[in-house]
Amino acid sequence: MRIKLTFASEKNIVIPLQYNYLVQAMIYNNISRELSDFLHDQGFVINGRQFKLFTFSRLQGRFKISGSKIEFTPPVSLIVASPVERFLRELAEGMLRNDNLNICGQRLMLTSVAVFQGFEDVDFSEEVTIKMLSPVVAYNTVRKSGGSRTIYFSPWDEWFSELIRINLERKYQLIYGQKLQDGDIRIEPLGPKDDRYCKVLEYKDTVIKGWNGIYKLKGDRRLIKVAYEAGLGSKNSQGFGCFEVIEGLKR
To answer: Region 91-102: what's the mean pLDDT?
Structure first.
């Protein structure tokens, strides 16, 4: 399930270019304290790995960039997706009730909440074309004596698709309480390698490397569903891995 939140403001919204944490904070501030604390402090854990099971897009709207700031001209929209219906319901209701809704101290007014159909209500093929609404991230951490090193992969690397598959299978097990049997999924970038799609962003002083662009997802519909609702790749709750389907959706 996913929702589209549209905001108005009395004046343009000027925020840091690296704004993922600000949007995430706004989300946590508009759900119940109980759920917020659970997601922030614990989350859903499998094999020692923590998942929040939600993702969100970049802010959508007219904007201009000046130095380290980005200025949006209202209205501005945000897509949030999750397989946890309670999370999305609390978020929408919390924002509707909040008379002091703001981002970086700038007041917002929630003007509409659009509910997208859940995956189970539409017919996807086993091959869909997607467009990233926030960059997709695949990485591995190499631990050595005295520290560790994070390696980020590009969609043209052999390991990229494999890491995406492993991540989605773990999310599937968390959501449905059982391992996926005989499932597989591959992600393929459409077009030649182009570093313009590489986005290097900062989240709480941590540098994260992700990729925008258009891709094909091929494989088990159950894993495609997990990607659609919980996010593709890693670091979803930090504003990565949200996408829209542009081909392969039958209505």
So the answer is: 94
